[in-house]
Amino acid sequence: MEMEPNGSNEPSEVGVRQRRTVYFVLIGLFLLQTGLTYTVSTEAPTPASELNASAQRGEALYRKFNCTACHQFYGLGGYMGPDLTNVTTVQGKGPEYARAFILHGSGRMPMLGASEEQADDLVAFLKAVAATGTYPIRNLDLTPWGTYQEMHGDAK
Ligand code: HEC
Question: Ligand 1: does its nearest atom lie under 6 Å from the Cβ of 108?
Answer without folding.
Answer: yes
